[in-house]
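[Archive record]
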Amino acid sequence: MVFDIQKCTVNILCEEQRSDALVETVVENNGLSLYLTAVKDKVKFIELHWQFASDPGLYVLGDVWERSYGELEFAKLADCTRHFPWYFIATDKKSCFCFGVRTRPNAFVSFRYTTDGITALVDCRNGASGVCLDGRKLHLATFVYEQYASDDVTACLHAYCKKLCPDPILPKEKIYGGNNWYYAYGKSSYGEILSDARVQVALADGIENKPFQVIDDGWQIHSCCGPWIANEKFGDMKKLADEIRQAGARPGIWIRLLNTKDETMTDEMRILRGGKRQYLDPTHPAVQKHIRADIERVRSWGYEMLKHDFTTVDLFGNFGNSLNETITKVEDWHFYDQSKTNAEIVLDFYRLIREAAGDMYLIGCNTISHLCAGLVELNRIGDDTSGREWSRTRKMGVNTLAFRLAQNEAFYMCDADCVGILDDNIPWELNKQWLHLLSYSNTPLFVSCSERITDEQKKDLSQAYKVFQQEHTIRPTDIYENKTPSRWEIDGQSVVYNWDE
């Protein structure tokens, strides 16, 4: 395909009639950089369009704003109805081309690809309002286009993702172990977590690389909410971290930084959206100080991994599965600091977490994929799997692993979520297949189980942990026909899974 990235039309949308907003496009760093300057204008969106003809029979796959929710699939270009956040790949099953923006841009960017060309919607807003740049010149994004003479779409997309993110931060060792959420669902205690850690150590017997034991929601005094102080079932969190380590595992912990009942956080420090104030506004200096203190406290307890959750919905009012071309649907609101775009605000927030976390590993959950790349070691790439419903694991787990596997070790390590083992809620012959796929995927492997697992499950889990320590080659092979691919090529061999109940 003949395509000139420089040949595009530009349209600027402001809160009122445009007067001084200027856009500049510059070819630099092997891409097309977009700059915005405005003194009085409050810019909301910039639209760029590249006109060219495309075959309606092309297969197209796009990314999503944050986690995926079982919706990812290749679709014929003629049938594409959604916008694609961040990037997309198109193929005729003989060659591929990719179009998108580099990671950590200062705007939210989504694409609409049709038979007539590509349209990029660059969201420069602050909340749902125009941004007040006050004369500042802002580099919004760098567009990157690549073609590949290959029919292996997973490999092509992986190569492209590496071009979009030249500086991922990756863990020094393979990450695996326990997370208590999918068998406990928030009902746990100091003793149960310590027992879980001992189970993980026993399953990893003979493996030099120690497993993690991550404490999920339920350790704090309020469910899914701060302040981040231990409840009576947990008590001394530093002592618990020490005992997890003494048992032979590595301690990790979950937190939701923007939701708290701490009364020192006043209304001015909370986002006013839809007529309500609830979630903390990370652009307020007092909130930034508060977040830093929360993270440093957890770090001082000795936890080696921090899983921070709910940041997208707390910041913008919606989960990604209810969004299309823009990051927020709620109108007429803004952040405390109106001088920065939403993307800048998120980046500042993630950088604050990264700095305060120090040498702790970070797992982003409900984090914005393209903005956390290079700032977290692990990212949850799909919505929750389940220890209760196999259909949810099949939809959320298998789909997200198949269609976002290309991001693994390019943006971060892709966490496709847990193998949830809650008594006999899910037949083991089904869950065992999910365990098998994860163990060969080169992505993190977390298992949610208690000491109640059977001898058969112990044997299978121990074997999976050993397999997981090695590097493997893997790709789905029925990715065009199946939203939950059942045919995979693993280490050069064909493997067929039966995901049906």
